[in-house]
Design a protein that fits this description.
The complex is a heterotrimer of chains A (443), B (472) and C (116).
Chain A lengths: L3 E12 L37 E2 H13 L7 E2 L2 E4 L9 E4 L9 E7 L2 E14 L3 E7 L2 E7 L6 E7 L6 H18 L11 E11 L10 E4 L4 H20 L7 E6 L4 E4 L12 E2 L6 E2 L2 H9 L5 H12 L3 H8 L2 H15 L5 H11 L8 H13 L5 H14 L1 H8 L4 H13 L6 H11 L2
Parallel strand pairs in A: 12-13
Antiparallel strand pairs in A: 1-10, 1-11, 3-16, 4-5, 4-15, 6-7, 7-10, 8-9, 11-12, 13-14
Chain B lengths: L9 H9 L5 H19 L2 E4 L1 H16 L11 E5 L26 H8 L3 E6 L33 H8 L5 E6 L5 H6 L3 E4 L19 E6 L2 H11 L29 E5 L8 H16 L3 E5 L7 H16 L17 H14 L5 H21 L5 E5 L15 H5 L6 H6 L3 E9 L2 E8 L5 H15 L10
Parallel strand pairs in B: 2-3, 2-4, 7-8, 7-9
Antiparallel strand pairs in B: 1-3, 4-6, 5-6, 5-10, 9-11, 10-11
Helix pairs in contact in B: 2-3, 7-14, 9-10, 9-11
Chain C lengths: L3 H16 L7 H7 L6 H18 L23 E2 L9 H5 L5 E2 L2 E5 L6
Classes of the chains: A alpha+beta (443), B alpha/beta (472), C mainly alpha (116).
Amino acid sequence: MSSYQPIIGLEVHIELSTKSKMFCWCSADYFGTDPNTHTCPICLGLPGAMPKANELAIKFAQKLGLALNCQVQLSSKFDRKNYFYPDLAKGFQISQYDLPFSGKGHLEIDTSTGRRAIEITRAHLEEDTGKLTHAVVEGEKVTLIDFNRSGVPLMEVVSEPQMNSAEEAKTYAQKLQQIVRYLEISDADMEKGSMRIEPNVSLRKAGGKSLPGYKVELKNINSFKFAQAAIEYEIKRQAEILNRQEVPTQETRGWNEQKSQTISQRTKELAHDYRYFPEPDLVPFVFDQNYFDEIKRGIPELPDKKTERFIREYQLSAYDVEILTRDKNTANYFEEALRVGKKFEIPTKHIANVIINKKPDIEKVLPAELIEGIVSARKAASIGQDELERIMREVLDKNPKAIEDYKKGKENAIMFLTGQIVKAASGKVDAKKVTFLLKERLK
Amino acid sequence: MKVDVTELTIKSASDLLAKKQIKAKELTEAFLKRAYGLNKKLNCYITISADVAQKQAEKVDKLIADNQPVGPTLGIPIAVKDMFTTRGIKTTAASRVLENYMPVYDATVISRLKEANTIFIGKTNQDAWAHGASGENSDFGPTKNPYDLIRVPGGSSSGSAAALAASTCLAATGTDTGGSIRQPAAFCNLVGLKPTYGRVSRYGIIAMASSLDAIGHFTKTVYDNALILSATAGPDSFDATCVQGAASDYTQGIHGGVKGLKIGLPREYYENLDEKIKKTILTAVKKLEGLGAKIEEVSLPHTEYGVATYYIIQPSEVSANLARYDGIRFGRDRSKFGAEAKRRIILGTYALSAGYYDAFYLKAMKVRRLIREDFLKVFRGVDVTICPTSPTLPFCLGQKVNDPLAMYLSDIYTVTANLVGVPSLNIPCGFIGHLPVGMQIIGPDFSEKLLYQVGYAYEQETKWYERKPSLA
Amino acid sequence: MKNPKSAFRLETRSKRAIRNPKSVIDIDYVAKLANLPLTSSEKKTFEKQLKDVLGYVSKLQKVDTRKVEPIGHITGLVNVLREDKTRPSISQQEALANAPKTHNGFFEVDAIFEEE
């Protein structure tokens, strides 16, 4: 029995969340709509129709390229990729061949053996296809086609075959999803199909250097869990073949959820001669450094940077920070809560714990409301009357000007004094009560 | 009022309408009647859209009765090549594949012609998918030349040329990918324009070869031609290859004459030319010289590679453009393509396939640059060039159908303008026996006004358009 | 090229093609790529006619293009884009109007078997 090293590369497709489609004005927000209600002559490929490129989709594509440290391309174009399939309206897909919007880049992932950069081969932009469903109509097996998805902007991010386990491949895909969501260019939802991953898997003898002479592409994967399961299954399957001194067939296999197996998809074998040529209906693109600088300015702090900063700035554990930065909204929520909580001198760690453990619904509970909750929870442990009396006296003694201002009718002076007292009491006192007591005293 | 419709031009018909001497309805009926009558003889229409035409005419009459401003093409009956997508009027590209195809949208040019209140007499016959130089590749039978019924009217815009030459309309639209307007214009004694690539929107016109397709039209006179271009040209948000710039009146400056203009005669176009055709064209050139133009010989050395370059790029693009016809969303399945479409699909697929791309497509795109550079160089020295449109007179039906290469070589003088992108205007320059001869006036990018100016000056001296076919 | 072996095969074919394009038209392969059903007599006719045309176009090999860049878009236009705005789509009825077979708002074709 030999031992093998899995060689895994990933092709990831991401639907961009523009308002309109890639080459026409139809709404790209098609999920869950009636079939063939989001189409026009362009995305249906009607005779005579011509494409017109969506500026924002191109910017989104370039933004992701920059976030993945890709070489930017100062000149680019679209090409026709020719093949036949019933979900492909024009008989060709408008895609990019030799001048993709983004060239080589890399994405760092944490693996069991430490942090590693996975190289990105390229990231290009194309149009999505229609959607096929298989059905039985009047006793006949048929395929039904919905072109609502046809023409939705689709990015393809291709990695080098540099991952060596299903776990690593999953980590890579999740990291890519996280970045895409930080950039707000797609919801990258695997179940909805707005993110699709196609791993290619092969095995080489442990210690070997060259790439195996075959690879197996995996399709029909709609969750990270299935991706991992499919790759693991495939590693086992290929190892068994190799152990018999045979070579696995180069092919495409689909993940079958019911059987928990990958199954050969025998599509027509001629598929790979795509006869690319420049799309004559679209003119080329030229970009300069200023253009890319402008896009760069629009890129928010990305997960790696944010994690690093949170650890440094807030002295939180890597574990806590990982949870807080998993998505940008939680991270922003945390920082907003910190700002509000500062007034009440609530320790950072305490706020982090509440967010991590109590998991507030950040869509509904405002950060200020969260802090209010923390503060009132503290009231249980609030200071006694004597202590409060002492603090009030101290604060009033230090702020004669504020007292004078209040007596002259400046209402904010009382808020200022309240704040000072709450702060001096480390927040363990109800601000409304303090205001009331102050007003009584200063009558 | 009784008018002889064969004597009308757009300009004269427009005057009659404006002066309320004829109603659009009467004019339309007269042309429809003629179209129905002559279609049996010529097979120039696939669809005669009488209902649509009558409604449009009623609308025009109402506009005129209400004393609305009368545009230069208001109420003008035109014929439309069946490559143009027309909402609610069957559009077939003369192929069985689209025999019953009813578009749900209008091509941009069709919208503009509707806005200009022209009247659509019908959709014209053509070589299927615009593949051809004779009209014989139509799946609905060949069109005949009104000047000689045993001869072809040229192609691929065969029906448009024949319909207009037979006076069943006052203008006809066409597409020109390698000569498909200019060559039938030459064969039918008409003015035919292939505009600069990017001048007229291609949106909604069935694509043949997208980097070569130019959308133009036929008229009887140069002035009429400028009127139609004024309606069709201009930027279109639907066509990314259509250039910006405001709409223009292309009749402006048309009376400017040729005095002092430099006209180049590209040597390569005259070298192996039929003696009679050469003599006819040189006589026309002499006429222009007499009007004050300066004539000089120029050279376009890569001319001989035009057809070869064209017959790589064009079928390559055709193979992709015809891929959408799979019989799922519209039309019939791919087995219904005619022989010529199949031939070009195979040729183009082959030229683009793995291992051949560099030797064919890429090579052709390099030679295409050399051909364009030839033209740019020549236009630094002369204002326009004049050369033959067709190497032969209208040939007989059936003469070339079994020899595709011979048919492809009919395009020898016309394909270069498509490869280069520059505009070219065919104008009638005489007859040999009973058969018309045309010549091309070619200018630099976006020089249509200049081409009209030269064409108009010549036409005023010769008026070949007055010589009608006898179709009694 | 996915398979190094087939890349080698294509490379060889290409060299042969340039030398003598008349000898190497694999009409079955090309027809399959083009999704074009051809009868055997069509194949025969086309093969001959295509050889003629390829023989003719091979004259391009005489042109020295070593220092020539392939021409880009003939208009010289660049960066023609549209804003990310929507306009109404056509109706489902219009989308399906010309389809030979439809079912419940879908286009319908004979079953495509994806798995065996």
